[in-house]
Amino acid sequence: MAFDAKKFIEKQVAEIKKTVGNSKAVVAMSGGVDSTVVSVLGSRALNNNLTAMFVDTGLMRAGEREQVESIAKQAGINLRIIDAGKQFFEKLSGVLEPERKRKIIGELFIRIFEEEAKKTKAEFLLQGTLAPDWIESGGGKRASIKSHHNVGGLPEKMGLKLVEPLRDCYKHEARLLARALGLPPSISERQPFPGPGLAVRIVGEVTSERAEIVRKACKIVEEEIEKAAASGEAERPWQYFASLLCSKTVGVRGDERAYQYVAVVRAVRSLDGMTANFSQLPPALLQRISTRITNEVRDIGRVVYDVTNKPPGTIELE
Ligand code: XMP
Asked: For residue 198, how far is the Cα from the chain centroid?
């Protein structure tokens, strides 16, 4: 049966009202399609009893914070911004193992949430968890591949009751909901962004400097691919970004020997992120991305393109 977005919205708004009642709720509004949809549904159901929070982890994409502010304003959502970058980088200092990074980020995120939620007297936490998030975290019969931020990172006793209106939805359905809610294409067509943010795009230690490097590279990949898709030069991939390797390689800058980081460009075709094929991007587009990254991000001296499907690879490098 086809997914009926309008009916789903009505049903979920009613469900949220029923579950939360006259209590207060909080939602993590990250700027992605899922959390924005949940924030709008929650705000329709609860009005001022909902507080949306944007935790600035220092691991967000360029312009993310400003966009969240603007959407919340347009949709009349009560938004609170928490600057937490310093705390995240301190906790991640010296941590190399991907699953530890995920757990640290998930736990700190929820702890900050709990503290802030206490101030609002909230009892409920609304989350934009999608079906693949919990299936891949070992929620079904499958083996746990990665502990996704929305599930695996949560401490057992978080003190807030969880409401997950999109738990049975896949990404394409979240986009249908965003369109039906009247959200702009910059949200409804926005590519997915992982809960742990840029941390899973930084192989090795996560520092604010390395986050800044990968943030700049991601922005270039997004700009070039979106331009190419708009002009019809290339198909718009399902997800596209850059990651940073921990190793450096030798290159030349002017007449000098350089020793700089390697950026991995990743672009994939997918329906729901469960499986994916690498996008066959035109060589001229790859060339432009590589030239811009090495020119504009001085710490990157080499750009490679990831030609791995999922499986055996995953979409994110960590
Ligand atoms: P992987 O790397 O597991 O990614 O193939 C599949 C999709 O999920 C996103 N992703 C996450 N989303 N929390 C999320 O909400 C997470 O911890 C997380 N890790 C990966 C990834 O960007 C891709 O779209």
From this structure: 8
Q: Range(s) for CATH 3.30.300.10 in the chain?
A: 202-305
Closest ligand 1 atom to Cα of 318: 2
- Provide the pLDDT for residue 88: 98
Q: For residue range 223-269, what is the model confidence (pLDDT) as tens digits?
A: 999 999 999 999 999 999 999 999 999 999 999 999 999 999 999 99
Fold of 5-188: Rossmann fold (3.40.50)
3-state secondary structure of 99: helix
CATH of domain 202-305: 3.30.300.10
Beta carbon of 308 within 6 Å of any ligand 1 atom? no
- pTM for the model stands at 0.87
List, by residue range, all CATH 3.40.50.620 domains of the chain: 5-188
Q: Is the CB of 150 under 6 A from ligand 1?
A: yes
3-state secondary structure of 190: coil
Cis bond before residue 132 (omega within 30° of 0) = no
